Amino acid sequence: LGHAYYSLVAKSTRETSAVHSFCMCPGGQIVAAVAQPGMLCTNGMSNSKHSSPFANSGLVVSVGPGDFGEGESIRRYVDLEHNGKVFHYNSSYFPMKNQEDEVIGCCIHTRDISNIIEIQQEYQRSQNKYKYIFENSHQGIVVLDMNTSQIIDCNQEFLNIFEISYKDTSIGDLPFKYIGDSNEGFQNPHD
Questions:
Q1: Following DSSP, what letter does each residue of 119-159 receive, concatenated?
Q2: CA 34/CA 128 separation, integer angstroms
Q3: Which neighbouring-strand residues pair with 105?
Q4: What residue spans of the chain are helical by DSSP H?
Q5: Residue 56: what are its φ and ψ, rounded to 5°?
Q6: Which pLDDT value is given to residue 42?
Q7: Do β-strands 55-61 and 28-32 pair in parallel, antiparallel, or remain unpaired?
Q8: Which phi and psi (to 5°) does residue 108 adopt?
Q9: 9, 56, 105, 135: which could form a disulfide with 96 (CB 3.0–4.6 Å)?
Q10: What is the pTM of this model?
Q11: Which runs of E-coded beta strand occur in the chain?
Q12: Is the Cβ–Cβ distance between 109 and 92 less than 8 Å?
């Protein structure tokens, strides 16, 4: 098998570092490649048949000693677009130091967080739809605490219907207060 059919490149800006993909290795594995005592280094390789069920690839990000400040680890988020699809990566950079405590390199752990970002974006879209319906409905809507059945939120139409001028006056109330003495038709989910 040959090299990967894709290549991702993002040029550096004032706020971001340059990044590019390299070495998609079918059947590959991550292996230790330490050449000096006290140093940490990894590399990717594959056997000649490329028969492993795994593959490895990497993203190269420009990092300088100034990125670490006093030698602490840093975290960066990188968004790359390829063929109209955006990929999101979370990279953690850990400084490598020699015996004199000087930063001489870094160890980078990169994780594809595209699915997490997609879920967060879908959740936000869902929240925005709910908020729009809640705030713009011509029906009075209340949100009840599942354990106590107390009102924890209500929309403006609910306030208008019951001529309540200030939202916080209804928070903590039971809905029976607004539907009369009879609670007919209302069932507490915990009864």
A1: HHHHHHHHHHHHHHHHHH-SS--EEE-TTT--EEEE-HHHH
A2: 51
A3: 96
A4: 114-136, 156-161, 176-179
A5: -135, 155
A6: 66
A7: unpaired
A8: -120, 130
A9: 105
A10: 0.45
A11: 9-10, 19-26, 28-32, 42-46, 55-61, 74-82, 85-97, 103-112, 142-144, 151-154
A12: yes
Residue 61 contacts residue 19 (beta carbons within 8 Å): yes
**pLDDT tens-digit series, residues 102-146:** 777 777 777 788 889 899 999 999 999 999 999 999 999 999 999
Distances (CA, A) of 154 to 140, 162, 163, 167: 8, 11, 13, 7
Ranges of the chain whose pLDDT falls below 50: none
Average pLDDT, the chain: 75
Give Cβ neighbours of residue 36 (< 8 Å, ≥ 6 apart): none
Interatomic CA distance for residues 38 and 126, integer angstroms: 50
